[in-house]
Design a protein that fits this description.
The protein is mainly alpha-helical. It is 67% helix and 5% strand.
Length: 194
Amino acid sequence: MTVTSVAAPVVPTTPPLRRGWQRFGVIILIFVAVLGGTYALAWWDAYQLAQQYMADADASFANGDYLNALAGYETFDAQANRFVTHGGYTQVENIWRHAWAWPKPALVAVARARIDEIIDHRLTIADAEQFVQKNTGRPNAYMGRIFLRLGELYAQAGDLISARDVFNEIPDLFPNDPALIQAAATRLQNLDAP
């Protein structure tokens, strides 16, 4: 009887270098998935907050309270013993201001259009004065524009002295905004034109 030995089948093995790259690829995929999931949750939270602020701003706008629609306001909730923020259109815009805040929801364009409408057509002298007083010394993207609008409102009301004062102050108050300075200079020339 002859005994023949059967050779075990040769199982190809993955070279160690290839296994290392596979693990690295899996780690990268997990990292991208976690990063993507985290961004999606943050985006959703920002969207929910923007919707809440938009509803607050729309309610203020509908009530003719244009300054609060623009800038928002706070109330004190005695039961919860805390202040509650009621958003304005500028808060909606600020949530999505960063270039990496993508994709920007459609409500951002609506908020910007409402901001323009309020500043250009709805503000009164009292509103503009209150906004300037309340926000002096605070960073606000619309301070210069509202200050210019205050000068325009003074001019429309026939208070040319106050209008001149506002237009003359703009270069000192907003030295880094050449477009605003030019707009103030143009309006000042129009006041002095015969």
